[in-house]
Amino acid sequence: MSASKPAGLQDILPLSPLQEGLYFLSTFDEPAAVDVYSVQQILDLTGPLDADRLRAAAAALLDRHPNLRAAFRPRKTGEPVQLIPAKVTQAWTFADLTGVSPAEAEVERIAAEDRGRRFDLGKPPLLRWTLVRLADNAHRLVMTGHHILLDGWSAPLLVRDLLALYAGTPLPAPRPYRDYLAWLTAQDRATGRAAWRQALDGVTEPTLVAPADPTRRPVVPAVVGTHLDAGTTAAVTALTRRLGVTLNTVVQAAWALLVGGLTGRDDVVFGATVSGRPAQLTGVEDMVGLFINTLPVRVRVRRDDTWTSLLDRVQREQAALLDHQYLSLAEIQRQAGIGALFDTLTVFESYPLDEEGIAAGQGASGLRLAAVTGHDATHYPLTLTVVPDMSLTFGLEYRPDLFTAETAAGILDRLTALLRALATDPSARLSTVDLLLPGERAGLARWNSTAHPVAAASVVDVFLERVAASPDVPAVVFGSQSLTYNELADRVDVLARRLVGMGAGPERVVAVVLPRSMDSVVAWLAVLRAGAVYLPVDVDLPADRIAFMLADADAAVVLRSVPTSGDVPLVELPVVSSRQAAYVLYTSGSTGKPKGVVVEHGAVVNFFEHHRREIFERLTDNRIRVGLSAALSFDTSWEGVLWLLAGHELHLFDDETRRDPALLAGYVARNGIDFLDVTPSLADRLVAEGLLDNPPAILALGGEAAGSALWTAVRDADNVTGVNLYGPTEATVDTLMAWIGDSATPLVGRPIANTRAHVLDGALRQVPVGVAGELYIAGTPLARGYLGRPGLTAERFVADPFGGPGGRMYRTGDVVRWTAGGSLEYVGRSDDQVKIRGFRIEL
Ligand code: AMP
Ligand code: MG
Q: d(Cα 113, Cα 120) in Å, to the nearest integer?
């Protein structure tokens, strides 16, 4: 290695694992970006000070520790080496602030500027000094270095050496850093790799608190801090003794639960900074250099784990890796084979703050070290630092571009809450320990307090009331045809009698297999009027699919055309109750075979009353024109019928119009349609056709996630109020609603009346605000279940642990999170279900 050592070069050395990591990070970094790997310590020195002598002492430090003179350069192969020159020019600046006021601010400015000045790893020294004189007996020494030279453990050693060199106190010769590098080279890497492969076996996904973003640049982190009270600290410490685990293990287990909770995972990986000082190397604790390493900690939380079983396992698993901490993170990650494994880090700070040693070294020089303040840095989204003391101290460094101070503080609060829970009952099952803070639990309950009285009525009651209230105004328009409420009611009445004559009745299914027409609306209401269960069937579906539905639903009547002649049976039409089934809708869902969702009248009426109150009446006093574009076999088509029931004029678009965005946009403009409910994908195409130049007064989106471009376009457009409606068929059309004008980014909103939304993790625990979890819906809108499929129904409609006894909640498969304002944001699906033009498809 030293064969071609140029003159003036004392040594050529390999890099330690973390040096390698830092070296590669620095090569990815754009030169202009801040260098978060500049570390800084500011020494507050009191007493008489000889500036030249201090400067000479700092220079002597570089002589004493050759590795502090290192430069880092690539070989021709690209592999980096550290070059140790025999001498380097000391980087020393002096600033006299005597008489400057305010001096403190000026020191801070000098220090900040120094931190901001990037080191070029190829140009040593990577350590520089600024001595600031504030007054005769008051100085600050700003020491700024690149992290690649030294770790946090080394910093106090360096301070001790510096003060001793200044005082002329003799120091024993240090063990050189190259001894450690030699030790590293001698390790059996194959064994180390095998140990890590085993430790990470089965990790299939990284644990990320922030979405992976390869373009993300390092920033200076912000920090929040907290203490665990002394009583809890003592209890936790006593527990560690009793269980034979370290405090580090306790913090790591708690962090695993916390990060698992924040990411919805029970197989959690995070990073830990280890001291990396091998016990086999005598004198290692007095060596200066970069020894620390960042290693993955993998913690699997099992369903039946208690605190004690988890602590025990974490302790054992980590102990098994103690001898293998010298591999670089990159090499360890290669063993797992999925790239970066984590984006949070824990640092257990137990530096040798050797105050006595420092005091002894200062000798009789008269100079005193009054305080040390430091600046450290990280590029991880979250870094937890732990300082063990009578009262455990936690710091959380966070990237301010990814987290707010409030969120960061909330994370620390949850951590201390977890440790308090541990101290209170170490035998508790972890499935009962959630991450909610007391205020949060109340907030979630408040956002779900949606109770509102609703009439025990059926859709038929609402329809008959409406006909009585406005008999002679237009109710439905289809192409050139139109019917008033009275005309519609007459047709409905005739067809309903015929249906009863054919065998329709309560809880009996009538399949409507009609081309989209005026008759579709008549048949829809007639089935309900007959007290039967409405099953809309799309005539365009393959014959075998239609046959399957008719058989599966055991249809009592199949209506393929509406009779126009013949006797009308003189039967009495039934009274329809709110507990009767109103419709059955087939959806492909996520289990392959189509399944019929059975919805009762009461759920439809609840949804109707909510929308009448919160949308119709809020937006208009007038009768308006409402366009219905959805397929009638899609539950969102109820949206149109509701407006009709509320007294507005329903325009049922024909197939040609609803399938052609240009025709549709033209119809809306020409006929003065005031309300339009479409999927975001159709809305995108309508916007391209100029819909927003002459928009409906109300534009409702629903059926799939709205993109932010569309959201912004609707929000910014004049003369249109946008609303986003979310809901699975299993919970009656719409269960969540968000006004587009209320938020700059897409939201699915808040639960409608008598509806509760729960965002839960895999153990059905509520997740904190801002954390993604699966959406479960409870309350009045829940469907009865899947027709004739009790097993499937029990799988998706589960017991509601937050409601009264016997209550159920529907597992949507949608991943959402609460915003701080109590609205829900859509994140994605937890399964393979996709939506194509609003239709559910299982991949
Ligand atoms: P469906 O049963 O056909 O109404 O489909 C319900 C599914 O469509 C939901 O579970 C969501 O995955 C998706 N969905 C419906 N409305 C929205 C919306 N406004 N935003 C995002 N996804 C939606
Ligand atoms: Mg829906």
A: 16
